[in-house]
Amino acid sequence: MIFSICVYAAPYSSQASYSAYQFARSLLAQGHKLHRVFFYQDGVFNATKLATPPQGEFDLYEAWQTLAKEHNIDLAVCIAAALKRGVLNKEESVRYQKEANNLADGFSLSGLGQLIDAAVDSDRLITFGS
Amino acid sequence: MKKILLVSRHAPYGSSMAKDAIDVALAAAIYDQDISILFMDDGIFQLTKEQNASEISQKNINAMLSAFPLYGVEKLYFHLSSAIQRGIKIDELALDNITALHDEEISTLLNSQDQVLSF
Fold first, then answer.
1. pLDDT at B105 over 90
2. Taking CB atoms and an 8 Å limit, are A119 and B17 in contact across chains?
3. CA distance A68 to chain B (A)
4. Tens digits of per-residue pLDDT, A53-95?
5. What b/e string do you get for A59-83 counting C-beta neighbours within 10 Å, with b at 16 or more?
6. Which of A86, A110, B6, B102 lies at a 20 to 30 A Cα distance from A52?
7. A-B Cβ pairs (cutoff 8 Å, strict)
8. The complex's ipTM?
9. Catalytic-labelled residue, pool A20, A68, A78, A103
10. Chain B residues bordering chain A (beta-carbon distance below 8 Å)
11. For residue B54, what are the contacts with CB-CB under 8 A and spacing of at least 6?
12. Å from A101 to nearest chain B CA?
């Protein structure tokens, strides 16, 4: 079965992002396909490369990137939600004349169309953090 | 084309849930999907008349909702019990092209969809 996952909540403040990650790992382990993870609302904070969890705590940021690399998964971040929360890739930081960018490797900024596309192309769309 | 139901369950201004749901509904309409929207729980408060969000530097949610038909979003529903629980009468709703659903009709609506997006 083809799954997509939506993440609406920030990491650490709530369990939602970590549950989404565990769900992704589980469905892949059972032989299903993960088409896309879409980060919306505060979920975009999963995509910053500046976050530095303390040693001994699970590093969810790195875990997403490893997952994307291992299984070639599309980690799509809503561009409007990201820009207003200060999550920018290099291109956007140049466009808006900001002095830094912080979108981690493996994530891409894209529009809400990618969420609709995920709904259309997947058998199941599972939301975390609503 | 897929049948997508968007369930909106949050009050209009305390969080961005209501507005973010509207953005998703419009995206679905632009991508020519068969979109329906169901307001339930505190989502009912989005439908009330005479909102004045400019006081908190925001846009009126009910005004955004009334623009839906322009974008081809015409299947609008609300959960009747949620409205009754909150003391909101049908003639107090800002939209007149919205259908009231009883509890058992909610499950029929959910079962008829390909995907459900929850906000």
1. yes
2. no
3. 23
4. 999 999 999 999 999 999 999 999 999 999 999 999 999 999 9
5. ebbebbbebbeeeebbbbbbbebbb
6. A110
7. 46
8. 0.90
9. A78
10. 2, 4, 9, 16-17, 20, 23-24, 27-28, 30-31, 33, 114-119
11. B60
12. 24
How many of the other CB atoms lie within 10 Å of CB of A120?
18
B9 interaction partners in chain A (CB closer than 8 Å): 130
* HEC assignment per residue over A6-55: EECCCCCCCCHHHHHHHHHHHHHHCCCEEEEEEECHHHHHHHECCCCCCC
Contact B93, B48 (CB under 8 A): yes
Interface of A with B in 49-108 (CB under 8 A): 80-81
Residue A6 annotated among the catalytic residues of the structure:
no
- Asked if residue A104 lies in contact with residue A47, where contact means CB atoms within 8 angstroms, the answer is yes
Give the N- to C-terminal CA distance of chain A in Å, as an integer.
Answer: 23
Burial of A10 (0-12, 13-18, 19+ CB in 10 A): middle
Closest-CA distance of chain A to residue B2, Å? 6
pLDDT in tens, B56-90: 999 999 999 988 999 999 999 999 999 999 999 99
